[in-house]
Amino acid sequence: MKNQRVTQTILAATLMSLSFIAFSSAASGKEVAVSETINTPELNAADNVPTRVKKKDLSSIAGKSGEQFRTATHSVDYWFYDAWMTLYTDRDYDGYYASFDLEFDADTNYYQAPVYAIVYLGTNDYYEAFHVTSVFNLYSDSSDDSVLLESELVSGYPSNDYDILIELIDAQTDQVLATIDAYEDADLSYQSMESFDYDRPVTSEVVVETHAGSWSMWMSLGLLGLILWRRR
């Protein structure tokens, strides 16, 4: 019995946070590198945690307008509690960032529910998917089952103010359960970003010219003046 408890404790510590890195081609010429961390409440870490399963291929997801997302039917048993954004990596110091952390926490009325999320970037109220998460569990209204996406815009995203939209999907039926976007959370609106192929440091070349002849002439005149002054 004691050995079983030790095993469960080790398993809980191991499964509290799972992460991996994926490269996603959001659309033609667009590429995003995403490191995905899925958190699990410590008390639920020994539960039947879903394996790394991708329910949907990114290339099969068409772009949508914000109006299409907002008018879709959602479940009253699922919702987003909050989402957070942190921007970093601005090599050319133009105020547009190539890397960002996106963390979100969704809740449900059920004790446990397997879901996955589709994450979009958009401008002018039109969105294209750039990442599909693995299947993960929601545990009622726990704040310890959040998902963290550490992302780098590799290519294809010009300097702009982007909005972020997240869809929560039922892992068993593929039904859209909930959506959060810039209209509901200001943290997801007007994020100044660009991909690394646009984030190029500006370099300048400084040329220093010295004219040995002129310098020698002035040095000679200075020495001559010093000699004449000392003879006075």
Please explain how this structure is put together.
This protein is an alpha+beta fold. It has one domain: Sandwich (Immunoglobulin-like), CATH 2.60.40. The chain has three helices and twelve strands, in the order αβββαβββββββββα. Strands 3, 6, 7, 8, 10, 11 and 12 form a seven-stranded antiparallel sheet that branches. Strands 1-2-9-5-4 form a five-stranded antiparallel sheet. The longest helix has 20 residues. The termini are far apart.
Entry keywords:
3 helices, seven-stranded antiparallel beta sheet, 232 residues, 17% helix, elongated, five-stranded antiparallel beta sheet, single chain, disordered N terminus, Immunoglobulin-like, 12 strands, alpha+beta
Summarize the helices and strands and which ones pair or pack.
Blueprint: H1 2-15, E1 17-27, E2 30-39, E3 64-65, H2 66-70, E4 78-88, E5 99-108, E6 113-123, E7 126-132, E8 136-138, E9 147-155, E10 160-170, E11 176-180, E12 191-193, H3 212-231
Antiparallel strand pairs: 1-2, 2-9, 3-7, 4-5, 5-9, 6-7, 6-8, 6-10, 10-11, 10-12
Brief digest:
The protein has 232 residues and is α+β, with helices and mostly antiparallel strands. It has helices at 2-15, 66-70, 212-231, and strands spanning 17-27, 30-39, 64-65, 78-88, 99-108, 113-123, 126-132, 136-138, 147-155, 160-170, 176-180, 191-193. It has a single domain, classed as Immunoglobulin-like, CATH 2.60.40.
Coarse morphology = elongated
On the 0 to 100 scale, the average pLDDT is 83
Taken together, the total number of domains comes to: 1
Order of helices and strands: HEEEHEEEEEEEEEH
Number of helical regions: 3
The CATH architecture is Sandwich
- Describe the main β-sheet briefly: 7 strands, antiparallel
Termini, distance in Å? 107 Å
**CATH fold category name:** Immunoglobulin-like
Broad CATH class: Mainly Beta
CATH superfamily: Immunoglobulins
Protein name: GlyGly-CTERM sorting domain-containing protein
Keywords: Signal
